[in-house]
Amino acid sequence: xxxxxxxxxxxxxTAPDFELPEPLTGKVWKLADFEGHPALLVTFICNHCPFVxxxxxxxxxxxxxxxxxxxxxxxxxxNSAVTYPQDGPDFMAEDARKFEYTFPYLYDETQEVxxxxxxxxxxxxxxxxxxxxxxFELAYHGQFDDSRPNNxxxxxxxxxxxxxDCVLSDQPINFAPKPSVGCSIKWHPSENV
Length: 193
Prior knowledge:
By secondary structure, the chain is of the alpha+beta class. Helices cover 22% and strands 22% of the residues. The protein has helices at 50-53, 56-66, 89-98, 112-117, 158-168; strands at 3-5, 19-21, 28-30, 39-44, 71-77, 105-107, 121-122, 124-129, 137-142, 181-184. It has a five-stranded mixed β-sheet. Strands 1-10-7 form a three-stranded antiparallel β-sheet.
């Protein structure tokens, strides 16, 4: 599996709209469903990638720590279920149940949302802030922390937590984000990017 790092999406960019189903509940979620929150974390994950598996419990822990402070989270899987059936909707619902996701885990079957965000790997984290009635604007696009499978660095979520603390206290992010590193998004066979 190729190791990729995320591409740059310009800070201040407006969050691309989406309308995606949540396999666990059958509900269709839209970007507008998160409008009442001061911050939105859009994360591209999947079921099988070792880089995501490495962080799943800690993503849930981060959600439990920050959703009481107003953070909304939308996790999205854009992997092709044709080539990676273990990343398909039924297995997504099973994963959400198993890890007790407190946020929607959405299925991007067409992969249009991943393309709109410029996502290339899993996991990939986009943190948007809300400024009054303005659209969500990108405040952070980077890694969870320096931990990787088998590198013996502790999972802390330090990079993303620092960005969240800044955004939720209406302070500027004063450090350069490191790109996310992980498995490539598994594009549909005829649509390799």
